[in-house]
Amino acid sequence: MIFSCVLFFIVYALIIWERFNNTIAALLGAVILIFSGIMSESEAISYIDFSTLGLLIGMMIIVIVLKQSGIFEYIAIRQAKVVKGNPIAIMIALTLITAVASALLDNVTTIMLIVPVTLVILNILKIDPVPLIIFEILASNIGGTSTLIGDPPNLMIGSANEIGFTEFLFNLGPVVIIIMILLIAYIYVEVKYKNKFIVTEDKINELNRIDTSSLIKDKELMIKGLVVLSFVIIFFFLHSITHINSSTIAMFGASFLLLISNKPVNKILEKIEWETIFFFIGLFVLVGGLEKTGVIHALAQGLIHITSGNYLFLILGILWISAIASAFLDNIPFVATMIPLIQTIDSSTNIDIMPLWWALAFGACLGGNGTLVGASANVIASGLLEANGYKLPFKRYFKIGFPIMIISIVIASIYMVLMYM
To answer: What are the domain boundaries of the chain?
Structure first.
């Protein structure tokens, strides 16, 4: 138990330190567990959640193929032209697009697609892109909270407990809508009354001169991709009827799209975020080490003892602990630790644990907005800004992200009490 805990915290420290590649840290920790004799190779493989990996890879392939059609750039530029270069309207429109796309795709993929497009638009209009990128980060984590595929923590929770797309949407969606309304109101006030975002007439004319039809590079591919994506999402909604695993649906859609797209498969597969996939693999094995040695069981019993078995305290405890932890750490390893803990609570008590899963999802996904390192989408957005000559300081993000995160968790707490107590 001591060895598995020490190893886990060393890997965690390397992840927080950010001077050591996260994937290497996770895989090295997993291999050390096997070399130490704590688990065999077959046991290590048994702890890997292939449903989560399959769903993530499947959705990545669909998005990679769709991106080649130019559809995402078209939507963003078209939206900017519709609102005639109005900075308030552009910020609100791109923020809403980010939230919706994060719910239907996933927040990491959405950020990778929307940030470069945002930079193109705002560079034309000569507007500082950093504030809008912050809003898009917030929207990606908020929007991603609402669905099974929107945020990696939800993928992990749904995959571990066979919770479908519809259950996530109906249980988490109402809170997400409320929080997004508040975020849009904040953006309106910020842009309207601070007078930092002024667009000149010549810049608006330059935007209007962009031929949006030329942005669609492959219309046939766009139609094929949108049709496949639509069917995948429909079958996600029908999970409670079909009982087909979400990863199976995503992988079927991905392979079918590869078949009909006539694109070189090796080129598509090269663009998959394999680093993220292998990070998950190492993480699953590390958490498996904690589970096998009894650490998870001990933590679960400790949480039950601290809350004195009080159902309300247990729900709110998981919600707030998840939020604060996910704000300062990456939410993926935290959720990987919490999943077996809640499963242990389920086997140790007679309470309904579904609200505990929703509390974990709210805390991990919304808590990721707290700091610049709270979620993978945040780090990716910051890196894209830096690559384009902009800087997003930790403190600048924190001043906006952390208060919004706290407000979000307060709203989620009220919702949890009203709905499940």
So the answer is: 2-46+71-215+273-420
